[in-house]
Amino acid sequence: MAKLLKKEFRLFTHPTSWMFLAFGAMVLIPGYPMYVPLFWVTLGLFYACLSARENNDLYYTLLLPVRKRDAVRARGLYFALMELLQLLVCAVFAILRGALKIGPNPAGMDANLAFFGLGLILMGLFNLLFLPRLYKNPSAVGKPFLVVTLLVFAYIVAAEVCCFVVPFFRDVLDTPDPQHLGAKLTVLIAGAALFAALTALGTRRAEKLFEKVDL
Questions:
Q1: Terminal Cα distance for the chain, rounded
Q2: Rounded (10°) angle between helices 181-211 and 68-99
Q3: How far, in whole angstroms, is CA 120 from its chain's centroid?
Q4: Is the model's pLDDT at 215 over the cut of 70?
């Protein structure tokens, strides 16, 4: 698995993926939806999948002494690592935002611990929805990504609306750290657990679907 993961980073990664990591700096923009920087990592993954299709990456991978399920697991782990890296970059700029005293975000969720918990859920949902669609028909990348992106943005809109209409979000979660630290840590831990579970479920479903694909 380590060698397959090394192959993912060396051959599968698209140059835009590294460029989009820098978009975590958008967390510094006053009055900007904090979830949008998280979208860019999914776009980088899409470009990587598109490039891999054009370069026959799956055919190359399956010529190696690996099982189909191992190829899918390496891809799922790669997705998760890139998403966590994006969240880490956002966290660095969130800390800088606090140091610069930019203030609360009038556009929705503040860049706090609860935001990262909800962001982890967002990434987990993307993996759950996109990976099975990708491996059900590896030659079709655009339509699955479009469908999943619409669902992801529905989650983003719902999460942002909650900051204005749901008292728990508005008065507890959407506040500067370290206010309501216990509740925010609970959301962060729950988000991490859901991220792991949803990614695992999406990967397992993708494995089963890919086993049926005749390349």
A1: 22
A2: 160
A3: 7
A4: no
For residue 145, the surrounding DSSP H or E stretch is helix 142-165
| DSSP 8-class letter at 179 | T
Of 16, 17, 8, the residue nearest 57 (C-alpha): 8
pLDDT tens for residues 140-197?
888 999 999 999 999 999 999 999 999 999 999 999 888 899 999 999 999 999 999 9
How do residues 12-46 score in pLDDT, each as one tens digit?
A: 899 999 999 999 999 999 888 999 999 999 999 99
Region 109-129: mean pLDDT is: 95
CA–CA gap between residue 60 and residue 166 (Å, rounded): 50
Contact predicate 37/29, CB 8 Å: no
- Assess whether the previous peptide bond of 15 is cis (omega < 30° from 0): no
**Look-up of token digits 């967002």:** 122
Q: If you search the block for the tokens 């942002």, which residue do you land on?
A: 160
**Pairwise CA distance, residues 44 & 37, whole Å:** 12
With the CA atoms of 9, 78, 117 and 33 taken in that order, what torsion angle do they form, in degrees rounded to the nearest 10? 60
Closest CA to 110 of 193, 35, 38: 35
Per-position b or e across 97-119, b if 16+ CB within 10 A of its CB: beeeebeebeebbbbbbbbbbbb
Give yes or no for a contact between 87 and 116, defined as CB atoms under 8 angstroms apart.
yes
